[in-house]
Write a structure and sequence with these properties.
alpha/beta; Rossmann fold; sialyltransferase cstii, chain A; seven-stranded mixed beta sheet; seven-stranded parallel beta sheet; 23 helices; 22 strands; about 15% strand
Length: about 675
C-alpha cells in the first residue's frame, strides 16, 4: 500500500500544524510496524513558515518528494492520496501554491491520477458549503477523515455520500522546557486567564473580552492574556483597537466604563518554551469559539494541566473531562459572516456572555479560595486524555492507517471480497429509505444460492481459534449476533443485536464494535423499546425491528407455537418475541436472502463446563471469558431445544441445509454436527 500525504506542511496555518502532527503519528506507527505501507509527502506551500522545529524539519526531509523523477516513479503503480486541505483549495492550487523542492506535478494532477483518494478535513458549522460538495463531485474521494464526532455527524448528514471516519489530532505537551517572557506586568499573585489562537471572528475573542471586562473590568487581581496573531487585514494595531472597542462596549453597574488595563496582548512569534511557561502561569485557559473542528489550543492547555472555559458544544467536547472544564452555554444560530466560506446557511454555536461571566466568576472564586484546586482540575483533564489512549502519536497513527486501509480495500472489494462489495451496495440502497418494508424488498434473494455462517454467542465460539475460523469463512456470507461482533468484526456482513442488551447501555457508553460504520456490516437492531429507551441513544443501525414486550405474549413465543411460516419477512416485518429471538431473526433473514445452506457456530444453549441445558449461566452472565451476559429462565432452554428439531425440518422443507459447528450444543441430535 503506497500513500502520498499532500498538505501544507511548511505553512504557519492551522491546517499545516495539524498535518505535521498527523505526519508525526504516521511516522511513529511506521517505526513500530515497518513495511506496513510506503509513505511519501507532497508539500504545498501557501505561506512559508520559518518557525518549524528541528524535529519537524527532519521529519519532512525524511518523507518529502525530492524531485519530479521521484514523483513519477512512485506514481507508476497503484497509490492512495491523503489530501489535507479544505476542498476548494485543490481546484486552484496551481495558482496559489508553490510545491516543495520545485516539484511540477500539481496536487490536482496527483489526485486525478491516483487510484484512491481520501480527504482529511475539518469544519465549524452544521452545514458544509455547497462548493465543497461540488469539489467532491469532481475529485470523487473514496473516504473522508475528520477530527471529531461532531464533524462526522455533519459530513454524514450533508450531501457527502462517502464513508467518514473520525481520527483525532495528537494531544501532547508542547514542551517540557519553560522559558520566561519579559512582560510589562507580573503574572504572579493574579488570576490569569489565557487565550491563544488566530485573531478571527470565529474564535470568539469578542465574547471572551466582553465577558471578562464585564465581570473583572475594574479588578486589580485578574489578568486576561491574549496570545494571538493577525492576517493581512489585521495588524497588531488594529487588534489592539478592536480589543479596546470590545472592552468599552461593556457598561458596568452605574454605567461606569471599564477603567483597569487588565488585558495583555502578546503579538508576534514566541517559542514553544515561552508558551509552556505561559501555561505554567495560567489559572484558566479559555477559547469561546463559535465553532471548532477540534480545538488544538484547548487540547494543548489540558495537556499542560490547565482547566478550560469553553463552549459546551463543538468538536472539542470529544476529549474534555467535565471535571476539567467550565462549560459556557449559548445557542445555535446562523453564520452571518460575509467571509467565505462562512456565508453558508449553516449554524454554529454562539457562546453566551452572561454564561461566560458566571463561569469566570466561579473559576475566580475557586482560585481565591485555593488556586491549587484549579491545577487539580487541569490534571484531571490531562489524565482523562491520557487514559483514553486515543491521542498519542502511535494511537493516532494506527487510527489513520486503518482508515486509509479501509479506503484502499473498499475499492478492491469486487476483486477481493465480492460479498462485501454487494453488502455495501445493498446498504446504500436500504439506507436511502426510512421504510422498513421497502428495505426488506431490496434484500429479497440478494444472496440466492449462497452459503452462510451464523456466529452466535455460546461458549463454543469463544473457544474456537478465531483466525482459523476466519479462514474457513472466506467466500461465505457471515452473520454475527451481539458480542460475536467483537471477535469477527472484520469478516461480518450482517450484525444483529438487541439494543437493550448492549454492554454498558446504562451508562450510554457504546462499545467500539457497536458503533455504526458506513463501510461496516448491515447492522440490524431489535428491541422491545423505542430507540433511545433502555439503550444507548447514540446507537445507529441500518434496519430496526420492534418486537413486542415478552411478558404480554408468553403464549405466542415461536419456540412454543412453532408457526414458522407466519413470520417470513416477505409476509410481515413483525418479529416474534421470546427466547432465541436474535437467532430466529437471523434465520429468517438468511431464508429471505435466498441462501441454500446455514452453518451455525456458538448456538449452544449449554454451559462450557457441564453442557447441561439447565446450567445456563454462560448465556448472559457468569464466566468472565465468555462472550454473552444476562439471565435466562430455565424453561426457555428446554423449549428452544425441542423447537430446534422442528426448525431444522422447516428449513429442510425449503431446500435449506442446516448444520451445527458447535461441539457443545445441546440442540436436537437430528441437526447434523460438523467440524470447522
Amino acid at each position: 500500500m503506497k500513500i502520498i500525504y499532500a498538505g501544507q506542511f511548511r505553512d504557519s496555518s492551522g491546517y499545516a500544524v495539524a498535518a505535521r502532527g498527523y505526519l508525526k503519528a504516521l511516522d511513529e506507527y511506521l517505526q513500530k510496524n515497518p513495511g506496513k505501507f510506503e509513505l511519501k509527502v507532497y508539500t504545498a506551500i501557501l505561506v512559508p513558515s520559518s518557525k518549524l522545529t528541528e524535529e519537524e524539519i527532519d521529519l519532512l526531509n525524511k518523507y518529502e518528494f525530492k524531485d519530479n523523477d521521484e514523483i513519477e516513479n512512485f506514481t507508476k503503480s497503484e497509490y492512495l492520496v491523503l489530501w489535507h486541505f479544505p476542498p476548494p483549495l485543490v481546484l486552484f492550487a496551481d495558482d496559489r501554491f508553490g510545491a516543495c523542492n520545485n516539484c511540477s506535478p500539481s496536487i490536482m494532477k496527483i489526485l486525478k491520477r491516483s487510484d484512491y483518494n481520501v480527504n482529511f478535513v475539518a469544519w465549524e458549522t452544521s452545514l458544509i458549503p455547497e462548493e465543497w460538495d461540488q469539489v467532491y463531485d469532481y475529485v470523487q474521494p473514496n473516504r473522508l477523515i475528520v477530527p471529531c464526532e461532531w464533524n462526522q455527524e455533519v459530513f454524514s448528514k450533508n450531501r457527502v455520500n462517502v464513508p467518514c471516519d473520525v481520527v483525532p489530532h495528537i494531544i501532547e505537551e508542547k514542551s517540557t522546557i519553560k522559558k520566561p517572557i519579559n512582560l510589562p506586568v507580573d503574572l504572579d499573585n493574579k488570576f490569569v486567564v489565557f487565550s491563544m489562537s488566530q485573531w478571527t471572528s470565529r474564535k470568539g475573542f469578542d465574547k471572551l473580552i466582553q465577558a471578562f471586562s464585564a465581570e473583572f473590568g475594574n479588578s486589580d487581581d485578574v489578568l486576561l492574556v491574549l496570545k494571538t496573531f493577525g492576517s493581512s487585514t489585521h495588524n497588531d494595531e488594529r487588534i489592539r483597537n478592536e480589543i479596546k472597542a470590545y472592552r468599552n462596549s461593556i457598561l458596568l453597574s452605574g454605567n461606569d466604563k471599564v477603567t483597569k488595563n487588565n488585558i495583555l496582548l502578546i503579538p508576534g512569534f514566541i517559542s514553544n518554551e515561552n508558551i509552556s511557561w505561559l501555561y505554567e502561569k495560567t489559572d484558566l485557559f479559555s477559547l469561546l469559539s463559535r465553532g471548532e473542528g477540534f480545538g488544538l489550543t484547548i487540547a494543548e492547555a489540558l495537556s499542560q494541566n490547565v482547566p478550560v472555559m469553553v463552549p459546551k458544544e463543538g468538536g472539542h467536547i470529544d476529549y474534555i473531562s467535565p471535571e476539567a472544564a467550565f462549560f459556557v452555554n449559548g445557542m445555535w444560530d446562523s453564520c452571518t459572516f460575509s467571509m467565505p466560506p462562512y456565508e453558508s446557511d449553516g449554524d454554529w454555536f454562539i457562546p453566551s456572555v452572561k454564561s461566560a461571566r458566571k463561569q469566570l466568576r466561579r473559576a475566580y472564586n475557586i482560585w481565591k479560595n485555593d488556586k491549587n484546586e484549579l491545577t487539580i482540575m487541569g490534571s484531571k483533564g490531562n489524565k482523562y486524555i491520557k487514559n483514553s489512549d486515543k491521542y498519542t502519536p502511535l494511537s493516532v497513527g494506527k487510527q489513520m492507517f486503518e482508515s486509509l486501509e479501509k479506503s484502499f480495500l473498499q475499492n478492491n472489494f469486487k476483486n477481493a471480497d465480492p460479498i462485501k462489495s454487494k453488502i455495501l451496495e445493498l446498504k446504500k440502497k436500504i439506507e436511502k429509505t426510512d421504510d422498513l418494508e421497502q428495505s426488506i424488498k431490496i434484500l429479497k434473494d440478494s444472496f440466492k444460492g449462497e452459503e452462510c455462517v451464523i456466529l452466535a454467542t455460546g461458549p463454543s465460539l469463544t473457544n474456537k481459534d478465531v483466525e482459523h475460523v476466519k479462514n474457513k469463512l472466506k467466500g461465505k456470507l457471515v452473520f454475527t449476533i451481539k458480542q460475536a461482533q467483537d471477535l469477527y468484526e472484520d469478516v461480518s456482513h450482517f450484525h444483529f443485536f438487541n439494543c437493550a442488551n448492549l454492554p454498558t447501555y446504562e451508562s450510554k457508553v457504546l462499545p467500539e464494535h457497536y458503533k455504526y460504520k458506513t463501510d461496516g456490516p448491515i447492522s440490524v437492531a431489535s428491541s422491545n423499546y423505542p430507540a433511545g429507551q433502555r439503550w444507548s441513544p447514540y446507537q445507529k443501525y441500518s434496519l430496526f425491528f420492534k418486537i413486542p414486550i415478552r411478558t404480554e405474549i408468553n403464549d405466542e413465543f415461536l419456540c412454543k407455537t412453532k408457526k414458522y411460516d407466519d413470520y417470513l419477512l416477505e409476509k410481515t416485518i413483525q418479529r416474534p418475541c421470546g427466547p432465541g429471538i436474535m437467532f430466529e431473526t437471523v434465520m429468517y433473514m438468511a431464508v429471505h436472502l435466498g441462501v441454500k445452506k446455514i452453518t451455525a457456530i456458538g448456538y449452544d444453549l449449554s454451559s462450557a463446563k457441564t453442557k447441561k441445558a439447565d446450567d445456563h449461566k454462560h448465556f448472559y452472565g457468569g464466566t468472565e471469558n465468555l462472550i454473552n451476559r444476562g439471565d435466562v429462565l430455565g424453561w426457555e432452554m428446554g423449549a428452544n431445544i425441542e423447537a430446534s428439531e422442528s426448525a431444522y425440518e422447516w428449513l429442510k422443507e425449503k431446500g435449506i441445509d442446516f448444520e451445527l459447528a458447535s461441539d457443545q450444543s445441546v440442540l436436537s441430535d437430528v441437526i447434523p454436527r460438523v467440524k470447522i
